[in-house]
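A reminder from the course coordinator: this example appears on the midterm review sheet, so study it carefully.

Given structure:
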């Protein structure tokens, strides 16, 4: 059957996310106030008008993750998808470990839920997104906002969210070259020592406490990782250059440094307000005076109307 005659436009705003935060490999995601914004209306044919970052890529109709997800979700429900006109504005770096695919995938599911009148709950939307993404950390943080812990237990996604109102500065150092998640995962070992596993459990506990209790002084200990960042540094060369900033007393405004997602971008958390010199400090440590640095903050998650 065809989708119902839902003609009301759908407005979406989906945040970027930084997953695997420090020691929180496949468990923690942080929503950031960089957005994929979409206004969708029924149309005679599929059309995307894109502005913002990577607008040419975002405007492609073929193999567009938003539209392929939208149509596939409805096809699985036995509904022929109505055609849509998307007005899209993108602020999320693509292929840079900032959750661009999670935002696009969630957008497709939310479009299907609206224009197909599926009436799914947030939990159903989250589980569909997790099934398609393969892991919950990015999609959970994108949907729910703040710092979100997530796990798949007996085919159900379990989440906890906090820290939405923390007034912390987030900075993204974005290199020129992207890195695929598949390539980044291939760098990881099959086994870890008990010592490394215990160290990461301890750090993760402190990182959760830092966000839950607004204790930025815990970030230095809480963002130390021995599970994925040491191995991904081989491909994400920016991380080993910026990670030492966290331990320099003269750079006390930099509270935490971590790979963003699978890389290659690096997320830095700074005191608020960030000192005017922090850009120069980051670029000097990276040895790249033209390095792109994006200022952002913690997001409250998806907005739809």
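Designed residues:
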């Amino acid at each position: 059957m065809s989708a119902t005659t839902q003609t009301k436009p759908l407005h979406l705003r989906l945040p970027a996310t930084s997953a695997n935060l420090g020691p929180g490999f496949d468990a923690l995601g942080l929503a950031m106030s960089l957005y994929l914004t979409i206004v969708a209306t029924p149309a005679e044919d599929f059309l995307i008008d894109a502005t913002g970052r990577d607008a040419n890529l975002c405007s492609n109709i073929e193999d567009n993750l938003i539209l392929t997800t939208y149509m596939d979700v409805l096809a699985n429900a036995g509904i022929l998808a109505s055609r849509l006109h998307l007005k899209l504005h993108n602020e999320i770096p693509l292929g840079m470990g900032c959750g661009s695919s999670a935002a696009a995938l969630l957008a497709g599911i939310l479009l299907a839920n609206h224009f197909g009148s599926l009436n799914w709950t947030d939990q159903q939307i989250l589980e569909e997104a997790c099934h398609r993404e393969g892991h919950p950390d990015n999609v959970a943080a994108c949907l729910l906002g703040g710092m979100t812990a997530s796990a798949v237990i007996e085919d159900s996604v379990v989440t906890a969210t906090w820290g939405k109102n923390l007034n912390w500065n987030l900075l993204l150092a974005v290199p020129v070259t992207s890195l695929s998640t598949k390539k980044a995962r291939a760098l990881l070992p099959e086994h870890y020592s008990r010592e490394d596993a215990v160290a990461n459990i301890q750090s993760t506990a402190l990182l959760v406490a830092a966000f839950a209790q607004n204790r930025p002084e815990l970030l230095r200990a809480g963002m130390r990782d021995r599970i994925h960042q040491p191995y991904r540094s081989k491909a994400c060369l920016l991380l080993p250059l910026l990670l030492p900033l966290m331990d320099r007393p003269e750079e006390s405004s930099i509270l935490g440094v971590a790979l963003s997602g699978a890389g290659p971008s690096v997320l830095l958390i700074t005191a608020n307000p960030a000192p005017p010199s922090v850009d120069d400090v980051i670029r000097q440590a990276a040895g790249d005076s033209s390095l792109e640095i994006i200022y952002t903050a913690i997001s409250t998650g998806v907005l739809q109307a």
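Residues 169-296 form a domain with the Alpha-Beta Plaits fold (CATH 3.30.70.890). The longest helix spans residues 194-212.
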